[in-house]
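Batch manifest, entry 17 of 40.
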Amino acid sequence: MLRSTMVKAHVGVLLCAVLACYAAAGAEMSNAEKDLEKRLAKRLEWFQDMKFGFFVHWGIYSQWGCIESWPLIEEDKWARPDDLPPWVERKKDMETFKRDYRALNRTFNPRKFEPRTWAEAAKYAGMKYFCFTTKHHDGFCMFDTKQTDYRITYPDCPYSRTAQPDVAKVLFDTFRDEGFAISAYFSKSDWHHPAYWSPDAPAKTRNPNYDTLKNPEQWRQFVDFVHAQIEELMTGYGKVDILWLDGGQVRPPQQDIQMDRVAAMARSHQKNLLIVDRTVGGKHENYRTPEQEVPDKPQQFVWESCITMGEQWSYKPNDKYKSSRQLIHLLVDVVAKGGNLILNVGPTSDGELPPGALERLRDIGDWMKTNGEAIYKTRVLPPYKSGRVCFTRRGGTGYAIYLCEDGQETPPRKVAINGVVPKRGSKVRLLGAKEQLRWEREGQGISVDVPQSVIESPPCKHAFVFKMALDEGERD
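Output type: C-alpha cells
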C-alpha cells in the first residue's frame, strides 16, 4: 500500500504546486481552472509514459563549435576557454568576439541538413518526443518569426535561399510525421533585442543592462516581443505538446514577462499544452528539468533529466561522447527513479548528426527493441535499485534490470534480485530469450538461474531485463 501511494504522489504533488496560488489567495477554482487541473494530470501521465526524448541544440554557434550563446556573457569566462579557436583567433578581445559571433547569421548555410535522417535515427533509438531550440539566448531564431530580422529565413542568412528555410517548421513536421510529440525550446531572454540588452550601456551579465522597474516602457516592448514570438510558435507550427522555456532569470520582480498571460495565450491555441518555465517554480513549471544530473532517488514530482550525449550541448569538434553502455545505464537509472530522460545531440554546422552520435543511437535502439517494455509506461517499483539491479513496474508486472559491469558481455550464471519477489508459482522471464528461468526465494528477494544457452547467446548487450508477475502488495 505504501509503495502504491508513493508512486501516485508524483503527479499529485505537482498539481498542488500548480494550484497553490488559488489556495494562498483563498480563491475558489473556476470551472476553467478545474478543467485545466484535470487536463494537466492527464497530460503529465502521458508525458511520463514516453520516458525517452531527443533534444537538439543547433544554431549559428554550431559553425564555431563553441558553447551556445554563453560566450557572449563577459562575466562567464568558463564559456570562452583559453584554447577555444574563435576566442584565440580574435586575440581574446571581447568586443571583436561579440561582433563576429553576432554576424554568424551571415554565413550559416547547413547544406547537408536532412531532417528525415534525424527523425529516423531518433525513432530507431526508441525516443518518443523531440525538443528543438527555436531560439537560444543569443536571439537568433531558427523559425520564421516576423518580430526580428535576426532569423534563419531573413535574406542576409544564406540558408534563407533554400526551398524550406524554416528549420523549426520542417523539423517539427518531420518528427510529428514519425509519431513524435513536439517540444518547442524557447529562451525567454534575448541578448540581441535592444529592449533586453540596451545599446546605450555595456552588457556584462545575462540580465537586462538597465533597471526594468525604472524603465517600464522599455521592458514592456520586450514583453510584447516575447509574447508575439511565442504566439507565432503556438499558431504556425502545428500541434505543439510542450513549451520548454529557458532563461530562468527572467522572472518577477525585475524581469516579469507576465507568465499568466503567456500560458493563457499559448493554451488558447494549444489546449493540452504542458509548460516548463524552467527553474522558476510555481504553476507554470509543470515538470522539473534537472540539467546534466540525475536525482539520487525517486522524487515526489514529475521530472525530466536533460543530459548531453557528449560534453557540450551544441556541436563540438571531437566531442567526447558517453559510451552506448553508459547511455543505456543512464536511461535505466532515470526511469527506475520515475523520471524521463531527454538526451541531447548537437548537429554540425552542415546540419548532420555526428557519426559517433548516430552509432550510439543505433546501439540504444538495438537494446530498446528487446527491452523497451521495461521502460515505456512504467513507474517506480521500490526499492528502485539494489546493487546492480534497477526496478520498474507496469501494472502488476515488475522488471528487474541487471546492469552489466564494464567489459561484461553476458549475464552471470546466477542473478540475485533483492527487494522484489515474484508472485508465488509464477514464472520469471528474460526479455529476448525463450528459455524458462528457474528461481527461488533468497532472503528478501530471489536468486535466478540463467541457462547456459542464454549465456552463450545473449539477447542483447549492456543490460538484461528479468520480467515477473508481482504479488498483490507490489501492484497499484
